[in-house]
Amino acid sequence: MPLVEVHVIKDAFTPEQKRRIIEKVTDAMVSVEGDRLRGVTWVKIHEVESGDWAIGGQPLTARAVQDIAAGKNVA
Question: What's the sign of the alpha-carbon dihedral 54, 26, 33, 46?
Fold first, then answer.
């Protein structure tokens, strides 16, 4: 049975957003494997501490993720 792991920065997403991530990832897997496997499709969210994840050598924070989602220019 499938296990999908999603890594996010801690505190960048609300509990409701994480619930929606789980729901949508499950739906995506079920669209491939069939609805009978919905009950055995696992989704795990791993939270990485803010600043412990970097892109291009620059630490990424929860605030930066929130700003990007809001359409703010993050440099």
Answer: positive
